[in-house]
Design a protein that fits this description.
Organism: Pigmentiphaga litoralis
Low-confidence stretches: none
Strand order of the largest sheet: 3-2-1-4-5-6-7
Distance between the termini: 30 Å
Protein name: Glycosyltransferase involved in cell wall biosynthesis
Helix content: 25-40%
Shape: globular
Radius of gyration: 21 Å
InterPro entries: Glyco_trans_1, Glyco_trans_4-like_N
GO molecular function: glycosyltransferase activity
Number of domains: 2
Mean pLDDT: 93
Keywords: Transferase
Length: 358
């Protein structure tokens, strides 16, 4: 099958450090190539892939967004996808709803994976206007605000099977991994660790947009001797970080559509203590791969109950449910169904994005 994968341009595919969507796009793209599909990846310069790469801007947009309009790069890319669409059987978009006005001009089938929350005011009006666009959710919980969309299925994220291996909790600490942001509640992670009297290691990115929150609400908490801030971690560091942890603390305060870090923890055999928000009940099996809690008190008690969790069961759950081959196995029937419903097209030569920006 000839497939276009269309990524956001804010980060490289895969990201060098923090980055969820671009990481999932990379895992999906590489597994499709491994299985023999003809894949073209639209992404920013510096991306690495075994697919054909169309570089739609010179570098990750986050590096220039203070001095350039990030949407300009995205709209130029989407127009290029339209021009080249006759060369594909299907275009798979990962750019939220930016491409919706473009999608009706495509000369191939198309699918959109919605990676973001859907409970934002204004979204119903937009999605009503594009109710024909076929979309995929990354959890059943994600669909709740807009159950009437043109849902084609739910596909949980997956990681390469051999990317992360099971650790032994030798570090003895609790782990917080991701981003320092109000919705991630690092303050609650610190409170849980303090009350459980267990060290907390934090591997997290601090975005410019969250800097005020960090300075006002979080920086002073890092002075606690129980807290160890390890900065933003790359893929290799993340592996060691999660594998050596007793548990991942996931005290989110928003309807997280998936939470890739939970699957990463399970791949390392590390149980997860997570607040009951968004997709958490779909990813974590209470009492088997971690504990789902509603309060800080329950989270502290869960830390004490961690010896009840078999780390081998965590790894087994990852292998059964959250691998890249499983993710591709879920997507391919959707691709096939949409392609069969789309009228056939003939490939046509088209100018590349690089020709437009040179």
């Amino acid at each position: 099958m000839r497939i276009a994968q269309v990524a956001t341009l804010y980060e490289t595919v895969p990201p060098q450090a923090y980055g969820g969507i671009e990481r999932v796009v990379s895992y999906l793209t590489e597994e499709l190539v491994r299985q023999g599909h003809d894949v073209t990846l639209f992404a920013c310069g510096g991306s690495r892939t075994h697919a054909k790469l169309i570089e739609c801007c010179p570098c990750a947009v986050r590096l220039v967004e203070d001095t350039a309009d990030p949407q300009a790069f995205h709209f130029a890319m989407l127009e290029d996808v339209v021009r080249q669409s006759g060369n594909f059987d299907l275009a798979h978009f990962h750019v939220d709803y930016q491409h919706f006005p473009f999608s009706r001009r495509l000369d191939c089938a198309h699918l959109t994976t919605l990676h973001w929350r859907l409970d934002i005011p204004g979204l119903p009006l937009l999605y009503r206007a594009f109710a024909d666009v076929p979309v995929v959710s990354i959890s059943e919980a994600q669909r709740t605000p807009l159950p009437w969309l043109n849902w084609q299925g739910t596909v949980h994220h997956g990681l390469p099977t051999d990317l992360l291996t099971a650790g032994d909790a030798s570090g003895g600490y609790l782990a917080f991994l991701g981003r320092i942001a109000p919705s991630k509640r690092p303050d609650l992670a610190i409170e849980i660790a303090r009350r459980a009297n267990v060290p907390l290691h934090i591997g997290a990115k601090i975005d410019n947009g969250d800097l005020h929150y960090f300075e006002r609400d979080i920086r002073h908490l890092f002075n606690d001797p129980i807290v160890h801030y390890r900065g933003e971690l790359n893929e290799v560091q993340k592996h060691t970080f999660l594998g050596a942890a007793r548990a991942l603390i996931f005290p989110i305060d928003w309807p997280e559509p998936f939470g890739l870090v939970m699957a990463e923890a399970l791949a390392c055999g590390t149980p997860v203590i997570a607040f009951r928000r968004g997709s958490v009940p779909e990813v974590i099996e209470h009492g088997v791969t971690g504990f789902i809690v509603d309060t800080v008190d329950e989270a502290v008690d869960a830390v004490r109950r961690l010896p009840e969790i078999d780390r081998r069961a965590c790894r087994a759950a990852f292998e059964a449910r959250f691998t890249a081959p499983r993710m591709v196995a879920d997507y391919l029937p959707i691709y096939d169904r949409l392609c069969k419903a789309s009228r056939p097209r003939q490939p046509q030569p088209q100018p590349a994005c690089a020709d437009l920006i040179s």
